[in-house]
Amino acid sequence: MQKLKFTLFSLRDFLVAFGPVLALFCGLVYLGYRLADPAPSRLVDMTSGVQGSTYERFARAYSSELAKSGVTLRNANSEGSQQNFERIRDPDSVYEVGFVRSGSTDPEQATEQGLISLGALFYEPIWIFYRSKTDWRSLTQLKGKRINLGARGSGIQRIFTELLQLNHLQEADVSIQRLPDQQALASFLRGETDVLVFCTGSDSEIVQQLLQNRDVRLFDFEQAEAYTRRLAYLSAVTLPRGIIDIGADLPARDYHLLATTVTLVAHESLHPALVSLMLQAARSIHSKADWFSKRNEFPSERFTEIPVSEHAVKFYEHGTPVLQRYLPFWVANFIERMWFVLVAAGALILPLSKIIPPVYVWRIRSRIYRWYGQLREIELSLEQEGLGWQQGTQRLDALENSVNQIVVPLAYAEELYGLRGHIQLVRSRLAAAAARDRQSPPAENGSCADC
To answer: Which chain regions cross the lipid bilayer (predicted)?
Structure first.
């Protein structure tokens, strides 16, 4: 510790000199932090689908991906796409994001209510299963059939209604059932339901079970391209021959299907940083190839009815933000939000920082120079008041003891030794004056110096 006193630099004095500028800089940064876009929430509420569905499975995958960045995704089950849409657009709802199927919503209404799209995630084919000895060639053959469309809120009814209308049918021409999937399957196998209509991914257990049942037929949309021209939200996809089991040649031919796309829909209040984080998770989850899409085909800004968020567009154009590629999410987000504040504060502080070296030098030298005032007082007392030896020596000793306690960096030791030398100079003058006083004879009473 003793050696630390004798350095070329005084950290304490530097901090005192730099302190006001540092405090001003911190104050500006804090003010900018308060006024800038607030930090994203660490909790996101998502609405997915029925328990065990593809939507719920993907919601769990999103939860795992977001957890890596310290964000908790809280999932709530729903009846499906339509209920998800209703929840997100509700201004009093806590739900910020969810899965919505194309064709199940009104795009203009969604835009008016502040909903945005983060992009399409995957195809969701329309599966129509029926029992018949021959293949059906047209949906007109659905007339008079008992058809199950799944639980209410699934979002398929609007799409199915439009398909019927294109085939000159109305809902009154068929018997609509709204049983949950498992109950509908049991009813179908008992013969109480004629047609099952699903709009779900190829990983659905019920779909795969029906595809392997040789007593059940899958409707082949031979006019798929025509449907897509009339209903823009639909895409024509192909179920390839042998995709289920190549060795068993199942299915034994290609099937033409119509498919909707599932979109990640959010409320416009979702923080831009969370938009980027959700899309990074989407790219990790949905970029793999499946029965109907190629690798890296999804997520995509195409195939979505609701306008894509401008922040999502930037993500699709440039990918993951540069800082988030190398830094933890929260660190990168802080820098992205605060860089302009830091630059502005730095531009203001830089000129002020030029006064720091002079202030630092002044603080060091002021420890020395302030003792010159007392030394000058002693010297004036010696010259004007005839300061006595004993009193003068005591004052100089006290002054010298105080000066000996001064600690300054070695770079300023010359000034300190100069002060000590000047004290010795005054001490020498005091000693010389005392010596003259002892040598001078006392003057007699009444004598005259001129005599």
So the answer is: 12-33, 338-362
